[in-house]
Design brief:
The protein has 436 residues and is an alpha+beta fold. Helices cover 25% and strands 32% of the residues. The N terminus and C terminus are likely disordered.
């Protein structure tokens, strides 16, 4: 399932963090929580952690099992959605008042302006005060986990418009395979014990469980598995969300948010920058004074590297700077100046500077390939191909310039980057130390 956002305006009350901002691997801008329970003997807590040096706005949405809004009270009044900011390098904890006399269950998702971490915990007060915690996840088309007959499973449909059918398949250590079907309405969730869906499952079953769409096109969903222990106590299992194929929409959104956080320091009126993600089959991206557009076809072409995508997005944000200031800051050529901005913005938030080489090489290849429709930068194919090859040949020099001619902050980060990742990265001073 593809999701497109066209022409929305980014509004963010954040400032530029330190150069070379690194974030936890599990941080996302779209955070899904496939299961939580609250009321009666159970209390729910959402925890969000921010690794940035600036506040990050977040909005949390709560849904019932049938997909309708779910009302909860975290101490500031009842609601179905909650907006707040996670402090710089801080944590926000939302703990429910558990006012419902009976237990209710649902699922949740949150959207943030920068990648953050999120965890949901629900405490079973009557069972020895046990706590189950599950980290936020992203929608995917598959899920895999260790399992027993009593494994708890929750699946939720992320689509607002389309019902989905999921096949739950159990594989036993002794060779048994069994399956069952779960159907979910738009935005609906279902939680169950594995043996409830696979009726012929042996009570002593030990093995694995696969979850996915039985037919193409494969549906997107979020899932969670819980290990069952004696006494009715559950504990969280590692996320089994399958990582391929990656949703290009999620990937573009996450990379854009990070790169934009570096760009807002330089671009006039950054809160009015618009970003469009389109499903056009043309390999293209462009930027102007209004904002940028990224076609899914371009993201698919460079689908194996977030650093390559970050360079392209940074390049387009360079065009936003040019359009709004009426000037080229680093180079008199429109595209080469934007390339330098691509390095500055992507390197400034911790992406690999060599991603530029991969992106330019793939775009150069696309302009010379008959079956790829390419209109990058609105140039004709021959001019674009020549431009890409020239800019590719100058990547080393451009990196050297960014690491020595942009700012002392950039030079310092380049030195650190060379020690950790690329010892032969150009520019700056290579600091070495001998082992003791």
């Amino acid at each position: 399932m593809r999701r497109f956002v066209v022409g929305f305006v980014i509004v963010a009350s954040v400032v530029m963090p330190s150069y070379g901002q690194l974030i936890p691997d599990t941080a996302q801008v779209h955070l899904c929580f496939p299961q939580f329970a609250d009321g009666g003997p159970v209390q729910t807590t959402f925890t969000f952690a921010n690794s940035y040096g600036s506040a990050v706005p977040v909005t949390l949405y709560l849904m019932r099992d049938d997909g309708s809004p779910l009302t909860m009270d975290f101490g500031g009044g009842a609601g179905t959605q909650f907006s707040f900011s996670v402090p710089p390098r801080g944590t926000i904890i939302l703990q429910s008042r558990a006012v419902s006399p009976t237990m209710i269950s649902g699922w949740a998702e949150a959207f943030s302006n920068l990648p953050i971490q999120g965890v949901v915990s629900y405490r079973f007060i009557q069972n020895g005060n046990s706590v189950v915690s599950a980290a936020a996840t992203l929608p995917g088309i598959g899920y895999f986990s260790a399992a027993t007959a009593d494994t708890g499973i929750a699946v939720a449909n992320a689509s607002k418009t389309t019902a989905i059918t999921l096949e739950i398949t159990a594989h036993s250590n002794d060779g048994f395979t069994g399956s069952g079907i779960v159907t979910l309405a738009p935005r609906a969730k279902r939680a169950f014990i594995l043996r409830e869906v696979i009726k012929n499952l042996n009570p002593n079953f030990i093995g694995t469980v696969d979850i996915g769409g039985p037919n193409s096109p494969y549906p997107e969903f979020v899932a969670l598995t819980l290990k069952a222990e004696s006494g009715g106590i559950y504990s969280g299992l590692p996320s089994g969300a399958l990582s391929l194929p990656v949703s290009q929409f999620e990937r573009i959104w996450r990379v854009y948010r990070k790169v934009f956080d570096a760009a807002r320091r330089y671009i006039p009126s950054p809160d009015t920058v618009q970003v469009s993600v389109k499903g056009d089959s043309v390999v293209n991206a462009f930027g102007n004074a209004n904002g940028i557009q990224i076609n899914l076809a371009l993201a698919e072409l460079i689908s194996d590297s977030d650093s390559e995508l970050a360079f392209v997005i940074g390049h387009e944000l360079g065009h936003v700077y040019q359009g709004r200031t009426g000037q080229y800051k680093y180079n008199g050529d429109l595209e080469w100046d934007a390339d330098i901005w691509g390095f500055v913005f992507s390197l400034g938030v911790g992406y690999d500077a060599y991603g530029a080489a991969g992106a330019l090489a793939k775009l150069a290849m696309a302009t010379g390939t008959a079956n790829l429709s390419t209109q990058f930068e609105l140039q004709n194919s021959s001019d674009a191909h020549k431009s890409f090859n020239e800019r590719l040949a100058n990547v080393y020099g451009t990196i050297s310039f960014v690491c020595t001619g942009v700012s002392a902050e950039a030079t310092l980060f380049c030195n650190q980057y060379r020690q950790i990742f690329h010892p032969h990265m150009p520019g700056g001073l290579l600091l070495t130390s001998e082992p003791e």
